[in-house]
Amino acid sequence: xxxxxxxxxxxxxxxxxxxxxxxxxxxxxxxxxxxxxxxxxxxxxxxxxxxxxxxxxxxxxxxxxxxxxxxxxxxxxxxxxxxxxxxxxxxxxxxxxxxxxxxxxxxxxxxxxxxxxxxxxxxxxxxxxxxxxxxxxxxxxxxxxxxxxxxxxxxx
Length: 156
Hints:
This protein has helices at 2-24, 37-49, 58-67, 71-92, 97-115, 128-140. The chain is mainly alpha-helical. It has one domain.
């Protein structure tokens, strides 16, 4: 009788330990990746530059980047957007929250334009602002990124 009771308690203990460890291991349903300390620091710098025009918190930005197929490339894109935005705000002396938010949206729109193959190898555009934005984006994007798989997208 004692032996059967001992085996029963031992089995419960083993199952409990197994469940504890099995449930302690994070399940990666979204195929997310942990960022390096350097990547988090770079993302924090982007977050500071875009404070007030990008409504995302640092934890939200980290979560998005961890879910990205290519966090390094996505981070480079975010950095280019932030630096281009800050340059233009300074150079053109953009003042007022609404104007800054509009400019930020234009920088993001122009990045999307580049990613969909528009203006590849050129800085031409119908407006001087779009030309300026694309010149700044290209200045801050790593040269190799324009040819990197996953940067450009096609609707075809």
